[in-house]
From TrEMBL:
Residues 243-307 form the Polymerase/histidinol phosphatase N-terminal domain. It comes from Devosia pacifica. SUPFAM superfamilies: PHP domain-like (SSF89550). One of its GO terms (molecular function) is 5'-3' DNA exonuclease activity. Coiled coil: none annotated. This is Phosphoesterase.
Length: 555
């Protein structure tokens, strides 16, 4: 679209840059100006004036305003006839002073697989914005379907500033009021900074060249994003709550905007949802702002290391995911626990390198080490998903005397097909808050299910009761269990309830013929019981956390 006074003035308007590009001849129509300077013009100053924006026929579209320092603002255009003004910051967004530029070059070999290749640079006093750009070539080894997987992480004098794991965009902008997805906004401290190439996957023949461009300037990138909180009032008080503990957005390697992630959680009927982007927490603040009081948000991250993945819940701070020489994952897990956060081993039997680099749990000091939570149902239930093997690991650790808790995670990266059978965590908590939910999950007061609702409890010979995650005295136990379909999609036809003791089936019931059952038996110290619901092929539909018997064999 060209702005010209007459048809004869089109060439003159093009030369002046009074033009914008659109994919439709019918609009939308845009106009911007800084002070007296129109689109394509030159403003006398970028300070102390307002930026004028007018849009027609663009209701619902997102407007992104970009300057030299990065994205200034993102706005959702509310109406077809819309005007808006934005006061420009007192410090120039156009980098009035010459920026500092530095470039690093190098080559990566297969021997550097699963390592961090770092470069340090000095940031001068008064810097408002830091911009980096990472490029590598070739991106693919030349054979097969699997590309190399390289990302960058940025560290300031006061700690990590983020990463955008496994995302094609490796050109972050970091400023006081704005940061690219994956990174944290905040003051740009003067001093020594470090950028590291995280070599997650480098396939033969290797020999990958790279460049990292670093630029600083005094201007600050700003962002103004219109966020409307969700309406609605979430359920509160003691009761059962349904939700997800594992999912991703564009802040790491997913396709979902934060708003899309929230909408998906609400459409699934969740009372709570965690955001666990890979090695970052940068999307949590926006998710909480958008959620309002409609759903509980659990802060988190997925430590995506070279030899295993783990969820850290109840955090809004970056957690160092690197396990370097002379460091151990067990020490990192213990540190997480000391900080009051929940550590969950994620998809321990997922397909590993090279298809999903680092996804399979391979820490010999963490089998399970100090971990007491393990994700046994990841994504949809499929024979090749590793979930059945994860249940085997869970049962083995229980038999070894560890009092473990099982969890599920949709591991959402994009909308799933309707046929995908995902599991949720059903948690009995004192309230629908992050603290209460995680306390209940930590104690095992939960079950995982793709639809059926189950109950499972035990009563001792002297009348004392124990729920999921609790301990009953040894001796005669009466185990009581029930199951029901919550929705038509969770129909119980064809399902069998299986009572499990120490990993072995001891009794079964047809779920379509009865909705509850009891079993009286003798239990000895070290026994544990769970309830499974499976179909005729053995596919899992629900699994409770254990009821334990006697004193723990291990702390």
């Amino acid at each position: 679209m060209v702005f010209a006074e007459t048809r004869d003035g089109i060439i003159k308007a093009l030369r002046r840059g009074h033009v914008y590009i659109t994919d439709s001849p019918d609009g939308p129509h845009l106009e911007i100006a800084i002070g007296e300077a129109p689109m394509g013009g030159i403003a006398a100053s970028s300070t102390g004036v307002e930026l004028f924006i007018a849009a027609k026929g663009a209701a619902g579209d997102e407007l992104r305003l970009v300057a030299q320092t990065g994205v200034l603002t993102r706005l959702t255009i509310p109406t077809d006839e819309w005007q808006h003004t934005i006061p420009l910051p007192s410090q120039s967004i156009f980098a009035d002073k010459k920026p500092m530029r530095q470039q690093f070059e190098g080559r990566l070999s297969v021997a550097q697989m699963a390592s961090h290749v770092g470069h340090e640079f000095e940031v001068p006093e008064g810097t408002g914005t830091l911009r980096l750009r990472f490029e590598h070539d070739p991106r693919h080894p030349g054979v097969g379907d699997i590309p190399h997987q390289l990302s960058i992480s940025v560290y300031g004098p006061n700690g990590p500033r983020g990463t955008r794991h496994n995302n094609a965009d490796q050109s972050p902008v970091i400023s006081t009021g704005f940061a690219s997805p994956g990174y944290l906004a905040g003051p740009i401290e003067p001093g020594t900074w470090r950028v590291e190439i995280d070599v997650h996957r480098l396939l033969p023949p290797g020999d990958v060249s790279y460049t990292i461009d670093v630029m600083t300037d005094e201007g600050e990138a700003i962002a103004e994003k219109t966020i409307t909180p969700q309406s609605g009032q979430k359920k509160r008080g003691p009761g059962w709550y349904k939700g997800d503990l594992h999912g991703h957005t564009i802040h790491s390697d997913a396709d979902l905007e934060v708003s899309d992630y929230l909408e998906l959680a609400l459409s699934r009927g969740f009372d709570f949802v965690a955001l666990t982007d890979h090695n970052t927490v940068s999307g949590i603040r926006e998710l909480e702002a958008r959620a309002g009081n409609a759903i509980t948000i659990i802060g988190g991250t997925e430590l995506t290391t070279f030899h295993g993945h783990a969820l850290v819940l109840s955090t809004r701070d970056l957690v160092d995911w690197r396990i370097r020489d002379k460091e151990t994952m067990s020490a990192r897990a213990a540190e997480v626990a000391r900080d009051g956060k929940l550590f969950i081993i994620a998809h321990p039997k997922a397909e590993g390198h090279p298809f999903c680099t680092g996804c399979r749990w391979a820490y010999s000091d963490m089998l399970p080490g100090p971990a007491r939570h393990v994700e046994i149902w990841n994504r949809e239930w499929r024979p090749c998903a590793g979930n059945e093997q994860a249940i085997g690991v869970f049962y083995r650790w229980l038999n070894e005397g560890y009092r473990m808790v099982a969890t599920a995670g949709t591991d959402t990266h994009r909308p799933s097909p309707e046929s995908a059978r995902l599991a949720a965590n059903y948690v009995y908590a004192e309230d629908n808050t992050e603290a209460a939910l995680l306390a209940a999950i930590s104690s095992g007061r939960s079950f995982v299910s793709s639809g059926p609702f189950v109950s499972f409890s035990a009563t001792t010979h002297d009348g004392l009761s124990a729920q999921m995650g609790e301990v009953a005295d040894q001796g005669t136990l009466c185990l009581e269990m029930s199951w029901r379909a919550e929705t038509p999609a969770s129909d119980l036809t064809g399902l069998t309830a299986r009572l499990i003791c120490r990993g072995e089936i001891i009794e079964t019931w047809d779920c379509a013929e009865t909705s509850e059952a009891q079993s009286s038996l003798g239990a000895k110290n070290g026994d544990w019981f769970t309830l499974e619901l499976r179909d005729h092929r053995g596919a899992l539909y629900a699994l409770t956390n254990p009821i334990f018997v006697g004193v723990p064999e291990r702390e």
